Amino acid sequence: MKRLKIEPSVARRFKLQHLLFALAALYLVFISVKFPQFLEIAKAMSGDDGYVGLDLAKVQDSQDGDLSKPLFSSVYKDTFHRKLEDQSQDAPVRPSKEPLEEKKSESKPIRPLQHRYGRITGEILRQRNRTNELSVLERMADEAWTLGLNAWEEVDKHDGKVTGESSIVEGKPESCPSWLSMSGEELAMGDKLMFLPCGLAAGSSVTVVGTSHYAHQEYVPQLAKLRRGDGIVMVSQFMVELQGLKSVDGEDPPKILHLNPRLKGDWSHRPVIEHNTCYRMQWGSAQRCDGLPSKNNEDMLVDGYGRCEKWMRNDMVDSKESKTKTTSWFKRFIGREQKPEVTWPFPFTEGRLFILTIRAGVDGFHISVGGRHVTSFPYRTGFTLEDATGLAIKGDVDVHSVYATSLPTSHPSFSPQRVLEMSEKWKARPLPKSPIRLFIGVLSATNHFAERMAVRKTWMQSSVIKSSNVVVRFFVALNPRKEVNAVLKKEAAYFGDIVILPFMDRYELVVLKTISICEFGVQNVTAAYIMKCDDDTFVRVDTVLKEIEGISSKKSLYMGNLNLLHRPLRSGKWAVTYEEWPEEVYPPYANGPGYIISIDIAKFVISQHGSRSLRLFKMEDVSMGMWVEQFNSSMATVQYSHNWKFCQYGCMENYYTAHYQSPRQMICLWDKLARGRAQCCNFR
């Protein structure tokens, strides 16, 4: 018998695969001992009541399964590259003592933390004269309620004539200048932000005249871990951003264009220009130009321009260029004409003046430096030129002057009346007196008139909603601008589908809206289940109901796109301190864009809130996971139901919910759904 000969590479790959399976088995054994509750969740998510252990065959099958499932979103891929931009302080040090141990004071001490997750924040609205005893989140909530109540009183007194609110409601167009200019001193006094009152239009251009700084040393922890060095790099970079309007305090405005030239490079040590977008603090995938020309395929061109032009690089020899020189000499020798080919250096130099121009084309932005085209960046879904109402310049740069030309002179979407269609067919029906199957609470910001109107015209027209088996309401807090609150009040009075919460909107206080959704679902309607989603979430209501029907009604339910063993970020812009969250991991929680709980869990949340014993955290989806876990351990067993199709980022084929959808995409998704196709709308 011939002996089977196996290639060494195949043998190594075979051994590596078995080693990985063995490590996975050991890891799950560790988890089962350290965190026994996760076996119950795994059992619930697998749908197999007979699950008792790990089947390696099943693990292998799952590895070779559907590779389209987004294990890690593209928004995380650029986190390391953006580290140089984030000038945050070092990560907080773990406290040597328990952050919640009793303090000696005259007031009643806080009892030590008994629950595994989070800290007890307790009474949000304690006596106003005891504010110094509240946590940061409690003080923030206390201030928001005070400001909100005052703002609501202003709305009641407001007649709309003094501040020009009547013109906003009636839709009178605002007149805007066709060009703007600003000196570097004026830009610095305005927090390095230039206001573009009516946004941009195709043909508009913004020109920045400035000088790049010389490089400075910067410590990058990721590099220190990857290398065996000290993690010190030389950095010279700046950012030019076209921004939209901020929805709520604490949330960054959307970045319609993020242009980031890095003169000394980043991890690559080569000069690079990065382009990206950011919506609701979630970054897209970056387009990086590093001196290599992009492909000239038709689908890669932007208005006929390449996405990345070529520039000189010291790390590689262009064989094509040397060959061109030889053929050029030969063609000149035989008398043929030869078109000269020039390769330019990187367009930015430390300590040198530059003139940067961003022009808005038909299909994307075009960036030129010194009159020469450098890069092009296609428009992305969910962003429009008229939304680019701010120009921010920051980083290692001295700005001398800024010019914006060919600007639009009117901005119709600034008028809510032009967005809101005051038609009887979009009005909500009165709350039914009989029990309903599902109540959907939609989180929305005050000035999201277009988003709410898109929801009304699309998935809120589902047959189950029209038949009053499902009820939908928007939950909206107040805005610092009283004229915007006045328009919100008129919108709520006409459509009858908005619950106005009398506190000033802040990103950190979204958790209060979630509690309000539970309270409304328990006290105002008799619903079997409650769903929470955002105003940029498209919901296939019929499909979600069918998914719920697959779970026994005798079981408590927590359904969505579940996360297990997620860890809080301890450094960076969105860091969570040990005081806010002392544990190393979050409880199992469903992503915030769309999840469902059964009514008994909602009643538990309201009961705990009413007794001032509800644990709160600034991330509302993590808070809900914490409450469900507490309910699961103290009240009744919860069925954890996981599905990727409750999309966290964007959309996927046959989705249940699609997130980050613009009003235009909402209309497109609804049209496709009407034709029986649950397909995404990936257009601008």
Number of helices: 17
CATH class of the domain at 421-675: Alpha Beta
Corresponding CATH architecture of the domain at 421-675? Alpha-Beta Complex
Question: Given the C-alpha coordinates, what overall shape results?
Answer: globular
Category from helices, strands and their pairing: alpha+beta
Terminal-residue CA separation: 64 Å
Described by strand count, sense and barrel closure, the largest sheet is:
7 strands, antiparallel
How many distinct beta strands? 26
The proportion of strand residues reads 15-25%
User: Portion of residues in helices?
Assistant: 25-40%
Mean pLDDT: 75
Membrane topology: Single-pass type II membrane protein
Cofactor: Mn(2+)
Subcellular location: Golgi apparatus membrane
Biased composition (Basic and acidic residues): 95-109
